[in-house]
Amino acid sequence: MFFFLSMFTKCYELLSVVVDSFLVDSSGLHIKSACFCKAILIFSGDDVSPALTLLKQIKARQEIMEVIEKSCCVVTVKKTSDHHHDGRSIGCSGVILNAQSGMVICNALPFSRFIDDGHIKQSLASDQRFMLPHNVGNEKLDIRVRFHEQRHHVDGNPCTSTSSYQAYTDVSKSDTTHPQHDTSAELVMLVNCLEFRKAFLTLFKETDKWRFYGGEEDEELARDSKFLGWFAVLRAERVVDGASDSRPLPWTKSSSLQKGCPVVACGTPFGSLCQDLFMSTLSRGIVSNLAGEENAVILTDARCLPGTEGGGLFLPRGGRGGADLVGVIVSPLCWKANEWIGLTLVCSAQVIFRNIMCCMKTEDPLRDMSSVLHRAATDRYLSSSSSPTDTYPTVCLVDSGHFWGSGVMVAPRLALTCRHVVAGKSSVTLRFHCRDRFHCVPGEVLFSTSSSSPYDLAVVRLPVSAPQAVIPQLATCFQPGEDVVVLGYGGLGQNCGPSLTSGILSRAISWSRQPVMLQTTCAVQAGASGGAVVRKHSGELLGIVSSNTRDYAAEVTYPHLNFSIPVTVFQTLLQHFDHTGDVEAFRVLDSPEDGVRKVWRLQAAQSKL
Fold it and tell me: Which uninterrupted H or E stretch holds 121?
């Protein structure tokens, strides 16, 4: 009887805690987490290790985000004179490299508006490495830096149950709106990242109609796009007082970055507009692709908005706490023709700092900043761990001549892709990316679904085994909400290997109790058709990418709403083919039930999507 009363008491206490977690503060995620930890403590009795483990994880994540948030700022620039005040200001995000010395780096686009066209053309044509303030007209510019007040971390032993819980709830119940301060700054110089520009011109060809701003053609924005890869070095008057942490911001070498690494982007959407609402907004993602010398060009699927240019891309240190700067946001919007790519363009901090150090040899104003630039975090965090993509299946570029897309190796000599990628051809070329080079293998199209089939699928056989192919395990179940990654040759795939984008499995649609369509929130672009949808942590193959979403009426593409064919549709067919070699086994895909056709009805010609 006593046992049941004890359990009833604990259940009642747990219920009250859970209810409290939803009543305390609707925006207080940390409060809910703390209440959840309290619930664990109630049930665990003397064994507090589960609660403490969760507390440590929450506290570590909170500290990482705080480090990132306090490292970012907003830079506004406007033109002033003795007799006339022009109220127009241009803003962007920035990164505080050293709060004590006031060293700040940001995107140079706000300053490009004040440089005459002749000087810009000369700088772009001659690969000029830097510009000094007199080239910009610094005496006529009012430069302001807005930043968050430096915070004090809670002291205490995280391994002690009472102090750990109390310290965490104290932080959680504090005001989540932190004071902001404003200070004046001076321009030290504008620096041109030559490695970034070289890689950028190679990757983003004009014939592909790339652009890095949205909306209609705008002469001023088009002019700005030519100034990508330039960064401003500023010295702010006062960022912290003497009592605050004055250590330089640690940074990591991009040369050791790997695709799939988790990253956090931090910037201020809309620049100088409503800074109290948008300042230092965080977005999580992964490294989608890398290119150029020492990975000068970084693409991430962390979602950013206009105004975040100049903000930081950070690499969390995991269990060690903290985060290292790895890049500076160049453009949050990448458009290819009329397709929104859904990726953020970033320049490596390593190569930016290298160019600044080259200028330090001749420019005295930068010599006192050497301590910041030499304080690079070692790349042991990256090089000591295996690549996040080691367990992911091998994907190849499938080229049918007029069309190209992606393919997934499901056996050493067998690849799956989409019907519209092979485009009715009997043979295609499969290109495997390895060590920055492509290895080409001819492929025979064994089977392609009919044009009337809702399953956009094709089977390609190789004459020899694919080089170093990773063959995936095929999933048997699907859990909406689970973390997934899409691998394919969308975006920059033809130039620098497959891209990775992360998201969740948003829906698994079934007919007759069998999954027939998957939807994810990963960014999927043209060229990713035939790519792989995999479980983020295990690499199990969930499906084959069929398409993203395009509204033909509005002429808008939605990369984060996409459709895939579940592996359960063709898993038994692959097994049958493996045992018998009978290609006709795949013909069943041409005659699915009417319910399946209804699920895939947006493929129909009369659909506006």
Answer: helix 117-126
